[in-house]
Amino acid sequence: xxxxxxxxxxxxxxxxxxxxxxxxxxxxxxx
Length: 31
Description:
The structure is a single chain. By secondary structure, the chain is mainly alpha-helical. It has one helix and no strands. The protein is elongated and about 35 Å long. The termini are far apart. About 0% of the residues are buried.
């Protein structure tokens, strides 16, 4: 699902949020 990159800060926040979601989904064993 491609998204329009508006600002680097917004993209960074979205990436961090997505990474956190994946982290919580996979658990803490990969940390």
